[in-house]
Amino acid sequence: MNLRRLVMREIFHRKTNFFLALLGAALAIVCVLATLAAMRSFELNSDALIAKMEADTQKEMKQLEDDIRKTMKGLGFNIYIFPKDQDMSEVYDQGYASKTMPEEYATILANSKIVTVNHLLPSLTQKLEWPEKKRNVILIGVRGEVPLAHRDPKSPLIDPVKKGELVLGYELHRSLGLKLGDELMFKGKSFKLSKAYQERGSKDDITIWMNLTECQELLGKKGLINAIQALECNCATLDRLGEIRAELMQILPNTQITETGSTALARAESRTKAKATAQKQIATAKQHRKQASAERERFAGVLLPIVLLFAMAWIAMLAFMNVRERVTEIGVLRAIGVSSKIILTAFLSRAVVAGLLGASLGAVFFAVIYPLLKERFFHGITLGEVISVSECAWLLLAAPFLAAVSAWLPSLMAAQKDPADVLRYD
Amino acid sequence: MTDNQPIAVKAEGLHKRFVTTEEEVHAVNDVSFEICAGDFVALHGPSGCGKSTLLLMTGALLSPDEGVIEIAGKNPYELKAEGRAAFRAEHVGFVFQQFHLIPYLNVLDNVLIGDLANRSSGGESNGDRARELLEKFNIGHRLHHVPSKLSIGEQQRVALARALLHSPELVLADEPTGNLDPENSEIILQHLADFADDGGAVIMVTHDDRAKAAAKSAMHLDGGEMISSDQQGEKKEGQGE
């Protein structure tokens, strides 16, 4: 005869009491697992949704940025950098700056780490008479784009004009009957017509493009330019010009900038706003998820202790009933010399077995029904993702411990039962 | 008291009072006796006279308010509760009117239940001793039956086997034949007498005349006091039953 045999025989004898205790432990474990699974699956699901939202937005924004870049590129330069002392009303009146600035400004800008503009194109522009043809023309000296030192080289928006060559606008070559390859004299110097533009319906039609160095020599403005054209970067914020100006002023304080409005800009701004809105929506979704998660945690923080307390009270009540039912047995055992320690161990063991078996059955039951409820209540997330094996093991260890704690008081009562009291009134 | 036998139980000046909200009951009042090995003593008296209280005190279950008890030469009330439990397991056997067998254990396990006490003090299992006793009491064929499947007489024999498992010096029997028919009463009384003949001491609380007759001596208790004590088989005239 040993204690294990006594405990197991008693459990089989009083099946109902034991089964009810076991059921209490099983239900408590199912509740704990279900609550954990619901919280975790909600978190995983909302994390996945937000991640998808972010990825979609990123993809969309990248596409939009590419669209903007292409559109802007198609429309040409929209940022003009002029000397600081240039009267802008004069620029708007005659179409170019009369003041000049060093050509090296373009190089300084290119070698800086400016991020708000790209495609830098220095130029020297002046209205003058083409003496050999008796025509008023706009002469623009260009050297091609100055590559930005800190960025990957971009394909140039405008190709440079080689030395000894000219590019003419439509009205000029049409009215003068000029063809590609014709030799032309401009202010006493010989050039070859390398390119003739199609009609643009703008002042470009009466413009001559020439190599910048040759232009500077012809105009007596060696090493000088009167504008740097650029394309604003679409990474700029809503206050695009302010941001560009702030950055530019740190690099070239003796300059000023202006921006030409366009539908592309409006579109870019609306897309920037759309991006900001999308990011705000993601932030809001994250905030909502955080709040919902916190609410669920608070709810679980109330629910789980209640469930555990209820289960423990249930097990304690059943243990009390068991002790009451076995009062005479306890009295007899104590009378024949069984120690109170063994009585205590017998009752606690019963609770431990109920806790362990109940928790195991609860865990198995939950694992069996989870796949059936997964789609409806747990966002289709697998059990392994929401409950780890170690957590399950901890619960299985905690359950018998809590059951023993629950049964402690009744077991102690049993152990301290005075056999004389029991037998005297028998 | 049996001549030339060692004293199994010695009680001197025992008192026990129970205080209720209404009154104080002097359940045992200045009771002294000596019982030797080989004695089979019937303890009788009217209901409420203190027989069961005296039996519990004698069994190291209920400490007296005054007086001393020695069992096998030792005062169990000098021990702490756990030590007294071990003392009971070693020296005292109990038989109850209601048998108090454990309903979910079979016959063999019911007898061996005392091993739980024995084991805690490092003893070994008494399986062979239990079987021997059950064979002797003619229930060896029902070792694996639970008490509810046994007759009343068989149940009391199992209870007696449980009491004798550790070969105690003293058996305390509280109305052991109270629920038995004459035939089974005879068997139980015979076994108790055999135990006494083998050197054990028996104190049996009883109202049953046949049981009193089976005992070698008698003690009469009334109002908590020992009215007569005929522990050598000679009842004092004008006293006792």
Number of strands of chain B: 9
Largest beta-sheet details of chain B: 6 strands, mixed
CA radius of gyration of chain A is 44 Å
N-to-C terminal Cα separation of chain A, in Å?
Answer: 26 Å
Helix content of chain A: 55-70%
The fraction of residues assigned to DSSP E strands of chain A is 5-15%
Number of domains of chain B: 1
SSE string of chain B: EEEHEHEHHHHEHEHEE
- Poorly predicted tracts of residues of chain A: none
User: If helices are DSSP runs of H or I spanning 4 or more residues, what is the number of helices of chain B?
Assistant: 8
Compressed to H and E, one letter per element, the order of chain A equals HHEHEHEEEHEEEHEEHEHHHHHHH
CATH homologous superfamily caption of chain B:
P-loop containing nucleotide triphosphate hydrolases
CA-atom Rg of chain B in angstroms:
17 Å
Q: What is the oligomeric state here? A: heterodimer
Task: Walk me through this protein's architecture.
The complex is a heterodimer of chains A (426) and B (241). Chain A has 14 helices and eleven strands. Chain A has 426 residues and is an alpha+beta fold. Chain A folds into two domains: 3-59 and 276-424, no CATH class; 79-259, no CATH class. In chain A, the strands form two sheets. In chain A, strands 6-7-5-8-4-3-10-1-11 form a nine-stranded mixed β-sheet. In chain A, β3 (117-130) and β4 (135-142) form a beta hairpin. The model of chain A has no long low-confidence stretch (mean pLDDT 86). Chain B is an alpha/beta fold. In chain B, 32% of the residues lie in helices and 26% in strands. Chain B has eight helices and nine strands. Chain B has a six-stranded mixed β-sheet with strand order 5-6-7-3-8-9. In chain B, strands 2-1-4 form a three-stranded antiparallel β-sheet, covered by helices on one side. Chain B is globular and about 50 Å long. In chain B, 50% of the residues are buried.
